[in-house]
Amino acid sequence: MATPVIPVVRLEGVIAASRSAGGGRVLNLAAVEPALVKAFAMRKAPCVALVINSPGGSPVQSALIGRRIRQLAAQKNKPVVAFVEDAAASGGYWLACAADEIIADATSIVGSIGVIGGGFGFAEAMARLGVERRVHTAGRRKSQMDPFRPETPEDIARLDKLLAGLHGEFIGWVRERRGARLKAHPDLFEGEIFTGREGVEVGLVDALGDLNTILRARYGDKVKLKPLSQAKPSLLQRVFGAGADALVGQIEERAAWARLGL
Question: How far apart are CA 80 and CA 13, in angstroms?
Fold first, then answer.
């Protein structure tokens, strides 16, 4: 009997459209699709394994990656198993839900099914400095949420509507993928985070374990795991991403992990 070979795709880092967030690992469809295509092209592989370690990020990129995984799984009729390391939170959990089965460590962080939006307001600082803000628009809504102007009730209402819409999409995806496995919990869709063990109790996780232990138990000690890496930033992206934008990216990445206490 041939030794089974299982492709392993790591989905690690903050989820963002940009490929270089301060030198850290960044997840987006362009970066991970080549590895996903290779993984599902392995005809004799009994499944595709995803290793997820992400605090979340862009809802668009989360949806694009999740949808692509499901498309490939349907085309190749291949089951997908997600293994959570430190975290599959927010957009990271969106990715985990693309799998048919989610396995986590007891101490992993999962969930955070919510949407967050934030920024800074500099209106008072501008006034103290005696700086006049000059903005001209065609379209009365064009300059909403301008950080150099006071926040208005209309701004807040518009942002709340946007966040609620994105939250609804997230909840719909989780319900579609997890179905009857979800248990009733008052904070399940309120942005709460759960440990892996708690995740099993509320239906966000199917079982506790890790990549090597679970796959060897299922496919034998001789099973071979074939890592497939996501695309790396080019030399130019690394060089030109080393300035102020990179510093901001590092701060944002650190903040994303810090929200999970990691």
Answer: 20
